[in-house]
Specification:
- This protein is α/β, with parallel strands linked by helices and about 600 residues long.
- It contains 29 helices and 17 strands.
- Strand 10 (about 255), helix 13 (about 265-275) and strand 11 (about 280-285) form a beta-alpha-beta unit.
- The longest helix is centred in the middle third of the chain and has 18 residues, at about 350-365.
- The radius of gyration is 27 Å and the shape is globular.
- The chain starts with a helix and ends in an 11-residue tail after the last helix.
- Adenosine-5'-diphosphate binds near residues 14, 38, 46 and 320.
């Protein structure tokens, strides 16, 4: 383990293990199989990279996405680690070279996609080299219940017999009890040590707001994050395109990403996101798996995700570098109606629809919580969190509740009086005593409930109805154009046998800026601003020269450490966070020169 600690310092430039890493590394040293569940950004990769470097032989890493292997490998090479990948992008000679290096025992890590690893000739070849361990990343892909299922992962159980006695480590960020069991069984792990680390991501601030004018709301949110990298999730391809266009007009470096785009465009947009500072990707859920860019500052949802699990996974892409980040979502009555309708109309088998419906309902209930959002999120994953967290919308600005019994009764009776045949808009018009053509046509102005609701605004009524839908007092009938229909729970409420507490509308005020208040903030003093910018420019130049993303050169936190410490020598630099030997050798002089010259970057451009 001393060896491991030394590598941690020398290779990565980290002073200490993150919580949970050390015991996993120990297990790998002990040669035992392991199941590792750690939140995104928790630092899973190091758990297998370190032992692979320290032990004799090569570490085999199974990773689902060919597109990202190259980035992972070039990041490792920047650290001075002997890493390579084997996939279809290599030509014959490149493959020969990698295989030669493997035969000579000259590699610490080799990355492969499962389909490549499982080819008979690959297995035969790998059996001839010394293997230190096998790491299976994104192990939940083996679960048929999850949303990332991959057929190829099912074949990975053969590794148990193909490499007897070699420890295997399965890693994932998303796995409930059932998926965990599935992983162990399907990968044929032998009595694995199980490491289930907490799910909390303390540096992520959660905010959910009522959707009223989505474009304006998104624009205001992004204004708070101008120049920062982030992801905006939308439900449909069309909306991805239009939102990206709007953001570009507003001067954001925004790019679309969805499965309908030609492959080369998708790849180009993803590469821009990884390589340039401050790119916003507007995407469907097709985007994100395996993206390990550490400095994503926000993830915004302008449409609801499918489930809390999906939400957690998508928002988990923010703030891997431990610096303050935001998860921001807007949702409204329309989303509730539409998503339920989509489920009702789906062709999926009854059982699956029931599961998806339950998942959606849990997410909706979470949107409407009145106590700490983080605690509610974690409790969904079976974790007790001592609320309040002080870093979610509810903790920062607790919503008031009000006695909504009478309002609910008015709304429900209006649904009954109009014959349970109309959707939200019309029912609210009747309540508010509007004079519309539809009201005239159906003579609804004569109803006893006409105009009894003019004490609330339309927005307030939508909020009441949304909560009634979420809490199951009423539903929107998919087969009749979203007509509102009472559920059995509505009866006692109408009869006044129960009362109903509703939450006041989620405030749409500007969120307090996370960067300025978060516990994990990178704050640069005004006087250091020019130096900060100069460092980022230098980092970008060096990154472009090396053909890697800027964060692979140094994380923001390392730039900040450089600014704070203003080291005068390479030895002083080596003590800083994120600076190991290889990075020092490559970049130490350039940054020292920049620090010595104050903010004058010009000299680096001169021949
Ligand atoms: P995961 O795969 O769990 O999502 P990564 O392995 O990509 O997370 O690690 C997330 C980030 O945390 C990386 O940028 C990594 O360099 C950093 N990191 C990992 N371990 C440590 C550590 N012990 N100290 C400081 N930073 C770390
Ligand atoms: Zn909270």
């Amino acid at each position: 383990m001393d060896r491991a600690r030394r590598l941690l310092r020398e290779v990565y430039g980290y002073a200490d293990f993150r919580p949970g890493q050390e015991p996993v590394v120990q297990t790998a040293f002990a040669g035992r199989d392991a199941l590792v569940l750690m939140p995104t950004g928790g630092g899973k990769s190091l758990c297998y990279q370190l032992p692979a470097m320290a032990k004799e032989g090569v570490g085999i890493v199974v990773s689902p996405l060919i597109a990202l292997m190259q980035d992972q490998v070039s990041a490792l090479r920047q650290l001075g680690v002997k890493a390579a990948f084997l996939n279809s992008t290599l030509d014959y000679w490149e493959r020969q070279e990698v295989e030669g290096a493997l035969s000579r025992g000259a590699l610490d890590l080799i990355y492969l996609a499962p389909e490549r690893l499982l080819q008979a000739e690959t297995l035969d070849f790998l059996r001839t080299v010394q293997v230190a361990l096998i790491a299976i990343d994104e192990a939940h892909c083996v679960s048929q219940w999850g949303h990332d299922f991959r057929q190829d992962y099912l074949g990975l159980n053969v590794l148990a017999d193909a490499f007897p006695g070699i420890p295997r480590m399965a890693l994932t960020a998303t796995a409930d009890e059932r998926t965990r069991k599935e992983i162990v069984a399907r990968l044929a792990l032998r009595r694995p040590a199980s490491f289930v680390h907490g799910f909390d991501r303390p540096n992520i601030r959660y905010t959910v707001q009522a959707k009223n004018r989505p474009q304006t709301q998104l624009a205001a949110f992004l204004e708070e994050h101008r120049g920062e990298a982030g992801i905006v999730y939308c439900l449909s391809r069309r909306k991805v395109e239009s939102t990206a266009a709007t953001l570009r007009e507003a001067g954001h470096d925004a790019l679309p990403y969805h499965a309908g785009l030609p492959g080369h465009l998708r790849a180009a947009n993803q590469a821009r996101f990884l390589r340039d500072d401050g790119v916003v990707v507007v995407a469907t859920i097709a985007f994100g798996m395996g993206i390990d860019k550490p400095d994503v500052r926000f993830v915004a949802h302008v449409d609801l995700p499918k489930s809390i699990e999906a939400y957690y996974q998508e928002t988990g892409r923010a703030g891997r570098d431990d610096v303050a980040a935001e998860a921001w979502m807007i949702y409204g009555l329309q989303d509730v109606v539409r998503l339920r309708q989509m489920l009702d109309e789906s062709e999926a088998p009854e059982e699956q629809r029931r599961i998806e419906r339950a998942k959606l309902d849990k997410l909706l209930a979470w949107c409407e919580v009145t106590a700490c959002r983080r605690a509610a999120l974690l409790s969904h994953f079976g974790e007790d969190y001592p609320a309040p967290c002080g870093n979610c919308d509810i903790c920062l600005d607790p919503p008031r509740t009000w006695d909504g019994t009478v309002a609910a009764q008015k709304l429900l009776s209006c649904v009954v009086r109009t014959g349970q045949r109309f959707g939200a808009a019309h029912v609210i018009d009747v309540l508010r005593g509007k004079a519309t053509a539809k009201i005239e046509q159906h003579r609804h102005a004569g109803l006893s409930t006409y105009g009894i609701g003019d004490d609330l605004t339309e927005g307030q009524w939508r909020s009441v109805l949304r909560q009634l839908l979420v809490q199951g007092y009423v539903r929107a009938d998919a087969h009749r154009y979203g007509a509102l229909v009472l559920e059995p729970a509505a009866r006692p409420l109408l009869r006044g046998e129960v009362t109903l507490k509703l939450r006041e509308e989620i405030r749409t005020a500007k969120p307090k800026r996370a960067r300025k208040t978060g516990p994990h903030d990178i704050e640069v003093a005004a006087a250091d601003e020019p130096l900060w910018e100069a460092m980022r420019t230098l980092r970008k130049q060096l990154a472009d020269d090396a053909g890697v993303p800027p964060y692979v050169v140094f994380h923001d936190a390392t730039l900040k450490a450089l600014i704070d410490a203003k080291p005068k020598s390479l030895e002083e630099m080596l003590a800083l966070h994120g600076i190991g030997k290889a990075k020092l050798e490559r970049y130490g002089d350039a940054f020292l020169a920049l620090l010595a010259s104050g903010t004058n970057t010009q000299e680096h451009d001169e021949p």
